[in-house]
Specification:
Helices cover 35% and strands 21% of the residues. It is built from 7 helices and 10 strands. Helix 2 (111-134) crosses helix 7 (216-223) and helix 5 crosses helix 6 (192-203). The strands form 4 sheets. It has a 3-stranded mixed beta sheet. Strands 5-6-7 form a 3-stranded antiparallel beta sheet. The chain is globular, with a radius of gyration of 19 Å.
Length: 228
């Protein structure tokens, strides 16, 4: 019967911004990635030729690199893989090479990209942990986790768990609902009764301000590491 909320400043990485080959979830964006040894498999939106990588594909790639030991717990890209190469700014992992794109720019995940993803992942995880602690709960106490938004629709839950962004609970407890905010806005626009109900609803929400939470910095620092 209680409602608590928290807001996490996770930055634009989920939309592919500040990522070297990042793009929004549009035709040709790589949305899912699977790595088996030296072979990489990927799926693009609409099955089009790959032109970049969107948020869900970015986090899929990070999870695959971590699971396969190409990126360590601290987020460092290791050199022991044929698809890892050095450039002027450091190491990068090649998802689609120049040759595979007929001379076009390679689609890669760079060391700087990994750092950007770690910060976004840590922001989300810190919010979850502080929200749970505020109510005296643990991950296992969660009956259901509802994930909304366009990014959330494409997110591979197992990848998010693997890198430690989401709690390590059974995948069956997660539910992806799409653009819930958009649907809610439409309902509020067409129904005065619903608008009044929302106003009453939000008065009862307990909001946790992360900036003044004493354990936030420690929680955030711990959450930067990859893994459950």
């Amino acid at each position: 019967g209680e409602i608590s909320s928290v807001s996490c400043a996770s930055g634009p990485a989920f939309e592919g911004a500040h990522i070297s080959s990042g793009m929004r979830a549009a035709s040709g964006a790589i949305e899912h990635v699977l790595l088996r040894g030296q072979e990489i498999q990927y799926h693009t939106i609409h099955g089009s030729e790959p032109v970049g990588i969107c948020g869900s594909g970015i986090f899929d790639t990070l999870a695959q690199l971590f699971i396969n030991g190409i990126v360590d717990k601290g987020g460092r890209i290791l050199a022991e893989h044929p698809r890892v190469r050095e450039n002027q700014k450091g190491r990068e992992f090649v998802i689609v090479s120049e040759e595979e794109r007929n001379g076009g720019s390679a689609i890669t995940i760079t060391q700087a990209d990994v750092r950007e993803l770690q910060l976004a992942k840590a922001a989300i995880r810190s919010g979850i942990q502080i929200l749970l602690r505020d109510k005296g709960l643990s991950d296992e106490d969660l009956d259901e986790v509802v994930i909304a938004g366009a990014f959330g629709s494409y997110l591979d839950i197992s990848s998010a768990i693997a890198i430690g962004m989401l709690p390590a609970i059974p995948v069956s407890r997660f539910r992806q609902v799409g653009n819930a905010a958009g649907v809610g806005a439409k309902i509020a626009l067409v129904s005065r009764e619903k608008r009044e109900a929302v106003q009453e609803f939000i008065r009862d929400i307990h909001y946790i301000e992360l900036a003044v939470t004493p354990e936030f910095n420690t929680t955030f620092t711990e959450a930067i590491s990859l893994g459950e």
